[in-house]
Amino acid sequence: MKKVKKLDINYKVYTALLIRQKLPYLLVGLVVILSISFVIFKKTIISSVLQKKIPVINSKNGLKQYVVQAGEDLWQIAEKNYGSGFNAYDIAQANNLREPYILQSGQKLIIPSVAKRFPTQGSISPVSASQSGITGKTYVVKEGDFLFQIAQEAYGDGNLVQKIIDANKIPEPYTIEVGQQLFIPR
Prior knowledge:
Elements: H1 11-52, E1 56-58, E2 64-67, H2 74-82, H3 88-94, E3 108-111, H4 126-130, E4 138-140, H5 147-155, H6 161-168, E5 181-183
Antiparallel strand pairs: 1-2, 2-3, 4-5
Helix pairs in contact: 2-3, 5-6
């Protein structure tokens, strides 16, 4: 049997040679990773800054206009302009928008000068219900009606539209048809 000669390897020298040989690849890899990270970080910062800016245009007649950004809905636009999403209906009314309020990127909206709305809490008082346009427990949908407007007329607050939706089990996208009879919970 032959004896195997033990190799005398100096690991410090071997490691130094290996690092010297692989160092250019390591540096190129780090530069690529840092470059990609910088580009992603820059895009993220720029997009977050742009999203925080409210693109409002003052038109010639003194009304405020808003340019819709990609992915925005009326609730978000109302929050940006009034500090409350409950003003979404005011924007829809000022722009003659109909449910389901589909907005396009770049679309210009008029932002009406109205007070900030707050959510309604508690039950509907008989006084506020009697002051509204719809007083019965049922309502037949007419041409041009939409749920928010019906809730506005029934309760004096369109933000209570969910009561009508729940009572009538109206599925998304919450469309109603002319002649449809709706139960108005009181």
